[in-house]
Amino acid sequence: IAVICMLLQILIGTPLGITAAVHQNGIADRICMVIALAGVSIPGFWLAMMLVLLFAVRLGWLPPYGVGGIQYFILPCIANAFAGIASQARQTRSSMLEVLNQVVAGLHLRTEKITFQSHAESYYCFMLRQPWALWNNRSVLFAYRDSCIQVYVLECNLRTTPVVVYAEERELPFFLWEPLPGEEGEREARIRELDGGFLRVAQEVFGGKQVDSVYLIGDGFDQEWMKDSLRFLCRGRRVFQGSNLFSKGACIGLQERLAPSETGRSHVFLGKDKLKANVGMKVLRQGEESYYALLDAGMNWYEAETEMEFYIQDGNGFQVTVTPLTGRNGKQAQILLEDLPGSMARIHARFYLEEENCLTVEARDLGFGEFRPSQGHVWKEKIPLF
Description:
Elements (H helix, E strand, L loop, with lengths): L1 H21 L4 H15 L2 H15 L12 H36 L12 H10 L9 E8 L2 E10 L5 E11 L10 H23 L6 E5 L10 H6 L4 E5 L2 H14 L3 H4 L1 E4 L6 E9 L2 E8 L9 E9 L3 E8 L6 E6 L7 E12 L2 E8 L12 E7 L2
Parallel strand pairs: 1-4, 3-6, 4-5
Antiparallel strand pairs: 1-2, 2-3, 7-8, 7-10, 9-12, 10-11, 12-13, 13-14
Helix pairs in contact: 1-2, 1-4, 2-4, 3-4, 5-8
């Protein structure tokens, strides 16, 4: 049991910690840390009793005690390994974040210039440098890895300004990649199996919709087994094969952050973990009403944060404008500052997201110079974006 528990700690706790570190402050990080906190907090004897009560007594799936086959090891191993898995995940996360920070320090780069970019966004950034005819409707990327094909579909909404680009991600099971057999009969059978399977995958992904270009990456596509599937892909489409598309997209993504191109300025990517609405305020500048942008759609929602100071005259609140780029209606959210003294006030406001679709606004009373000192009031309100 001890050996099995140690293996579970390594095989489960280590990937959890790595996932949490790579997606720091994201949803995956929070889920992993909740699991880790539960593992550290829940007493082992209580967990063991609950497991026996649920899986042995109520469901009858596993034996509550005794000696025998592998089924007798499952509940004891889970009960004993759970705390170790949690501890391993926390230690791995901490160690990996420390290593990443050391790498950043060793490169002598400013931390605000370090960003993480998903494969889907790297694909989008790569397409920013491609001719518009290759992705003005849809572009599809197939990445053949191990026993699955990762599919990325980029689709442009030309009715919006800027043009909104959506990314659909799917993982489809496929044949385990391995070199083609040497014997002619086995080789032909394997080719027909791979070719027919990939043809069905492509037909399912396209679904009769217009696709401008197709990209094939991964070692599985290097061998010459695509026949009918390749003919289907090339029917009215441009097809490309390569291996470093994500690397190129990452480099282009950094260039776009530092110096956006004309195409980059006219498009916004709304993939996973992206803020999908513009957030701003209507303010008076030199006596004229104007829109002041606070947070822009397309940035990572967990990195979206800004602060500003402004004056309020003859009122006890201000409005925040939310404009979704997903086709939904925009709205005006009123932030009421109850018990705000006086008719004039200077306010410090902080805008950030604690959840993907929920904006948090924190406002602090700064007083009004010598006329009225600050009362130290702080208001906090959450605004659903959709």
